[in-house]
Design goal:
The structure is a homodimer. By secondary structure, chain A is α/β, with parallel strands linked by helices. Chain A folds into two domains: 236 residues, Aldehyde Dehydrogenase, Chain A, domain 1 (3-Layer(aba) Sandwich); 144 residues, Aldehyde Dehydrogenase, Chain A, domain 2. The first copy, chain A, is 43% helix and 20% strand. The first copy, chain A, has a seven-stranded parallel β-sheet, sandwiched between helices. In chain A, strands 5-4-3-6 form a four-stranded parallel β-sheet, sandwiched between helices. At the A-B interface, helix 2, helix 11, helix 15, strand 13 and strand 16 of A face helix 2, helix 11, helix 15, strand 13 and strand 16 of B. Strand 16 of chain A pairs parallel with strand 13 of chain B.
């Protein structure tokens, strides 16, 4: 066959994507009925395959690394891409942890009887087919595939082009797990192309894909939200606040502030702004700011904050709206809990916000009126995490208000149906 | 001021819409914190105002009717538009019924403690601002406004242009209720223009509106789904099935089939296709078809069904996918429950489907494997209704898989937040 003939026979990208979608839809029907045992067997077999195929995974990753270095990727990007013995083991262990979670599918979340004798129950069912679009970390391939499988959903994975070979090798282990358990290989598919046009097609496949989960930087999320014709569960901003109230214990406030800002600066639950009640500014502000500076954090403050330490730089208007994801914090003195609530309403991103206080009334006001997915009293914002919430693994933290808000674990990857049992009832 | 100066000062439609959105967002913050008592007081006052202002409402409606008749609207459309003493009273009573529902806001739906002592609870909160776009029935103004208010959401209503004056008069009564209870009038707004461009603007106001609920015909829903940059809760198709299994009691099957198809043919839960198990075709098919024909229903059947009665017309391929919303039914003989499940998977709309059988295993298979919002065993599909489910009023039935599936009552108009109470915990 000539090359021209081969090309004429080759399916177009659109056709390839349609075939992937059709296979995913078909696999999702099987998966929705799969027993907990078979799903867990597939996950355990996938974990074993990840360990057994570690040499192949590391070899594929080495090729990705060479290419990435050649393209001059940043050191941080290269570190995200790199796989090691430990990281492959962590991936396998993560898949086993997902196997150990309770199966959300089939759980009856409510049941009631009507006066006419109808028995109604609300039962968790999978969402169907989940499309996941992510950037460089290859371990997302294992995490996302395993979370979708556990929740009875078929997955279509589109990883970053830098990790193309690594993701392919990891994906092969997941497929080995599915096949070992007698589940359809198409239950977890990955796009076999780096062509960016494939993402555009994916976002329009509303008949084949029920939900899109983008994981990555702001530009990816914004592109997906703008282009998708499919509902999106996404995390956009985490501009999180710590408010130290007049009723706060100083030592607790110091510990929580440093932890919330600096334990890890790059996660969405990291605090970005510290608000301090004017009533305790004299006593609390200097030690709070001093701790942050001593730990290497840049402090951008209002006039009151600048007055307590010469190393504090002036905050600009934009600082109150900025998610630094870095060792930088904005600090402002506010007139009590009402002003703090107001500041968070105007500048926050409805992600995670915290009040430190021993005043129960102030805490109740803050918890009730701050409209964020997670509101905390006397605990660090860095607890914004599905694992810390006891949900096991998470596919991300949602800043949506619909369907899933906050950490998205296996339960949040389900929908429900109503099952109605009667004895011949007809509606009058 | 000259007319040119007045026009130069007049805000553009875009600016008017933005002002409505800003006011709704602001009102939603007040409403989210409003007590159950004040929301119910507003609803009772609105019901009283609807009754007191009945003459004005009927006068406005009479003007709408004159215009609609002049434009040659169909008799069915005119009947939808018409208000009478009884219909205004029914609207007022409906608002009072919504007042009587439990308040979903603030309900704690889960609570747990972590090993580190953090106490986590999941609490229902309003969605925020709900935009409702509907067609001719003016009573939707009262229903939708009241449901949003009860669930703590601000509402932006856009009614059909035919019912413009009627909706304005009904809206005035709702605002009177809000004001009597000391709640912001902007909690329920309606667009003060018939300009269709306003809908287009509304669908892009993602900063001001959290969710769009379209209520109306297919063309409205499809336009909204195509254009909206805001998540949509919508009901698209209700291609509902009754499957009469080999284990079905004939008398029950006859009663359910006639009720499911003909009690009301225009509602989304009306059955559109009857599937009969070949094992009982000899005994059951003729009486089932005879009942339908005797009741004035057109029957479109496959060859087996045509063979039992000369009045049965041949079903075309398209019939299996058609939502008639009329006294027409498609009838097919299938090879048992597996074939029925397969037919529903290929042709159904995942809305509401029913099996009639005394065979528990067949019922369990159907209930588990038919992937519809509502699956029924031995009960009519016409029970697909929030009121019949005991939810009180509903804003519609969702064919989405995300967030709300099936009847959408006040609970489904809420989101949730996580409230975390600690004693100084910092994340290790």
């Amino acid at each position: 066959m000539s090359i021209a003939e081969q090309l004429a026979d080759a399916p177009s990208l659109q056709q390839q994507m349609q075939a992937i979608g059709d296979q995913a839809r078909s696999a999702s029907r099987t998966l929705a009925q799969a027993s907990t045992e078979s799903k867990n067997a597939a996950l355990h077999a996938a974990a074993a395959a990840l360990r057994a195929q570690r040499p192949a995974i590391l070899a594929a990753n080495a090729e990705d690394m060479v290419e990435a270095e050649g393209r001059g990727l940043s050191k941080a990007m290269l570190d995200r891409l790199l796989l090691t013995d430990e990281r492959v083991e962590a991936m396998a262990a993560g898949v086993e942890q997902i196997a150990a979670l309770p199966d959300p599918v089939g759980a009856v979340t409510a049941t009631w009887e009507r006066p006419n004798g109808l028995e109604i129950s609300r039962v968790r069912v999978p969402l169907g087919v989940i499309g996941i679009i992510y950037e460089s970390r290859p371990n997302v391939t294992a995490d996302a595939g395993a979370l979708c499988l556990k929740s009875g959903n078929a997955a279509i994975l589109r990883g970053g082009s830098e990790s193309f070979r690594s993701s392919a090798a990891i994906h092969a282990a997941l497929v080995a797990g599915l096949e070992a358990a007698g589940l359809p290989a198409a239950a977890i598919q990955r796009l076999p192309t780096r062509d960016r046009a494939a993402v555009g097609i994916m976002l329009t496949m509303a008949d084949s894909i029920d939900i899109i989960v983008p994981r990555g930087g702001r530009s990816l999320i914004e592109r997906v939200q703008a282009e998708s014709r499919i509902p999106v569960i996404a995390h956009l901003d985490g501009n999180c606040h710590v408010y130290v109230d007049g009723g706060a214990d100083l030592e607790m406030a110091r510990a929580i502030t440093v932890n919330a800002k600096l334990r890890r600066t790059g996660i969405c639950g990291a605090a970005e702004t510290l608000l301090v009640d004017r009533r305790v500014a004299d006593s609390h502000l200097a030690p709070l700011v001093g701790d942050l500076l001593a730990a290497g954090c840049e402090v951008r403050g209002d006039a009151d904050t600048q007055a307590v330490d010469g190393r504090v730089v002036a905050a600009s208007k934009a600082d109150w709206d900025t998610e630094y994801l870095d060792a930088i914090i904005a600090v402002k003195v506010v007139d009590g809990v009402e002003a703090a609530i107001d500041h968070v309403a105007r500048h926050g991103s409805q992600h995670t916000d915290c009040i430190v206080t021993d005043d129960g009334a102030a805490a109740d006001a803050f918890l009730a009126r701050v409209d964020s997915a997670i509101v905390l009293h006397n605990a660090s914002t860095q607890y914004a995490d599905g694992g810390e919430f006891g949900m096991g693994a998470e596919i991300g933290i949602s800043t949506n208000r619909l369907h899933a808000r906050g950490p998205v674990g296996v339960e949040q990857l389900t929908s429900y149906k109503y099952v109605v049992r009667g004895t011949g009832q007809c509606r009058p």
